[in-house]
Amino acid sequence: MKFVEPYRRVIPTLLFYGEGLVKTIAFKNPVYIGDPINAVKIFNDKCVDELVFLDLNVCQRRSKLNLALLEEISSECFMPLSYGGGISSVEDIIALNRLGVEKAIINSAGVLSDGFIREASLRCGASSIVASIDYKNDLFGRSRVYIKGGSQKTSWNPVDLAIKYQEDGVGEIMVNSIDRDGRMNGYDLDLARTLGNQLSVPFILAGGAGTKSHLKEGFDAGASAVAAGSLFVFQGPHKAVLISYVNQEDLIKAIL
Q1: Per-residue pLDDT band at 206 (split at 50, 70, 90)
Q2: Rounded to the nearest 10 degrees, what angle do helices 67-76 and 90-99 cross at?
Q3: Percent of the chain beyond pLDDT 90?
Q4: Selecting from 3.40.50.300, 1.10.10.10, 3.40.50.620, 3.20.20.70, what CATH number does the domain 9-255 have?
Q5: Percentage of the residues of the chain whose pLDDT score is greater than 70
Q6: Helix, strand, or coil (residue 183)
Q7: Inter-residue contact 88 to 113 (CB < 8 Å)
Q8: Residue 131, class by beta-carbon neighbours within 10 Å (0-12 exposed, 13-18 middle, 19+ buried)?
C-alpha cells in the first residue's frame, strides 16, 4: 500500500562546509552563501515544515561530526531538524538526538555496513531514521548510487536500494539526483513515479527544484515530501544570494 502524507511537506535543505553554508552544482564547486544560524532564524520566521542540514565536509572527508555547531543550530531551530553527514554508528544518532536533532539521515554507512539501517531503526525508532540515496546516471543512462558525498560509485541502483531499506524497516527515504543538484531544472520525475509505485514508506524527492511548479510536479509524481536548496537561497536570473522561503499562502496554492 502506498504511503500517503496527511499534508505536503516542503523542506529546505542546507549544506554546510566547515561552519558556513554552501551550495553546489552536481555536488561540486561549493559556493559560500551565508551563516547557518542566520538561515535558521530566517526559516523560523517563515514557519517552514522542517529543516535539513547536510555536512558536505564530513560526507567527503569522513571527519568527525561537528556536534558543537549542531548544538548551536538546534538551540536556535524551532522546527523539526534533520541532519546528515558522517553518521556511522547508533551512538552518533543518540548524540544527535540528545542535541535536539529529530531525524538522522544515513547515507554511506547504509551501503558500507549491511544491517546498519535495520539496527538504527530498531534501536532508535524508525521515525527518527532517514535513509539517504544519492545517485546519478552513467554513460549508458543507468542510474547508480554514489556514497561519500557523491565521490564513490556503487553497484546499487536507487530503486533496488530503496526497496532494501524499506525491508530493513527504515522510517523514511530521501533520494537525491546528483546530476540535477543545483541546476534548478526540475526533479527526476520518472524515478519518483517508480518509487511511488514500489514503496509503502514515505520518500523525499530532492535535486533540481527551481520553481514552485517543480514542487507540485514532485508531489504529483508520488513523492511524500519534496526538498529544495537553490530555490530557497538564490533569487532572480543572476542567482543573487537571498535566503528566503515561499509565502505560505502562495506555497499552498502552488502545491495543491
Answers
A1: very high
A2: 40
A3: 78
A4: 3.20.20.70
A5: 95
A6: coil
A7: yes
A8: buried
Residue 97 pLDDT more than 90?
yes
Q: Which of 189, 248, 254, 246 is nearest to 223 (CA)?
A: 189
Q: Please give the grid coordinates belonging to residue 239.
A: 542567482
Q: Please, what sign has the CA dihedral across residues 16, 64, 168, 74?
A: negative
Work out the number of other CB atoms within 10 angstroms of the CB of residue 92: 19
- Measured CA to CA in angstroms, residue 229 lies from 100, 151, 181, 182, 189 at distances of 22, 20, 9, 7, 17
In this structure, are strands 9-17 and 20-25 parallel, antiparallel, or unpaired?
A: antiparallel
* Annotated catalytic residue within 55, 92, 114, 134: 134
Structure confidence by residue, pLDDT tens digits, 33-89: 999 999 999 999 888 889 999 998 777 665 678 899 999 999 999 999 999 999 999
| Number of CB atoms found within 10 A of residue 212's CB | 17
- Residue from 124, 205, 132, 204 nearest 165 by CA: 132
38 and 249 Cβ atoms separated by less than 8 Å: no
Q: Residue 20: beta bridge partners?
A: 17
Cα–Cα distance for residue pair 72/30, rounded to 1 Å: 23
CB-count burial class (<10 Å; 0-12, 13-18, 19+) for 247: exposed
H/E run at residue 95: helix 90-99
> Is 134 designated active site?
yes
